[in-house]
């Protein structure tokens, strides 16, 4: 981990403050939670091509699974397996801290989702092309379900239409 990565939250304070002020115009309700340092992983994949498409998976931990076991499964097993799949160009995983009102105290935005709807992790998957995405969901995803059912009570998957980069090389990008 580089020095710049350690200071990223501090360096991004200005952008965070801007988002905080305007959050009510962007979100009526938010679902994500913050993660502690080292709660996320960005995996090197075996694919050597650009990312054309991305999906994000949101996962809810089963009640009888400990948070440490869940974190280890998501970051050390599940995401690692994803990074070895043909056609997958990037894998990013993050496990969230438990929700706390103090961490999400923005006016006029609801953050108090029922406990049964809390999300505990997200995994972003990049694909080389539409054929790779379709192959993944047709053949790989069903196989992964056999592992997921031991740790996850719910999974939501979304296609990402467009990814915007706000900060690049520690500098804010003008969009």
Task: Describe how the helices and strands are arranged.
Blueprint: H1 3-11, H2 13-26, E1 40-43, E2 53-61, H3 67-82, E3 88-95, E4 121-127, H4 130-148, E5 152-160, E6 167-168, E7 171-172
Antiparallel strand pairs: 1-3, 2-4, 2-5, 3-4, 6-7
Beta-strand percentage range? 15-25%
- CATH class label: Alpha Beta
Mind telling me which CATH architecture this is?
A: 2-Layer Sandwich
Counting DSSP E segments of at least 2 residues, the number of strands comes to 7
CATH topology descriptor: Alpha-Beta Plaits
Roughly how much helix do the residues carry, as a percent range?
25-40%
Nearest-integer average pLDDT: 79
Coarse morphology:
globular
**For the report, how would you describe the main beta sheet?**
5 strands, antiparallel
Order of helices and strands: HHEEHEEHEEE
The low-pLDDT segments are: 1-7
Question: How many structural domains in the coordinates?
Answer: 1
Distance between the termini: 28 Å
Radius of gyration: 17 Å
Coarse structural class: alpha+beta
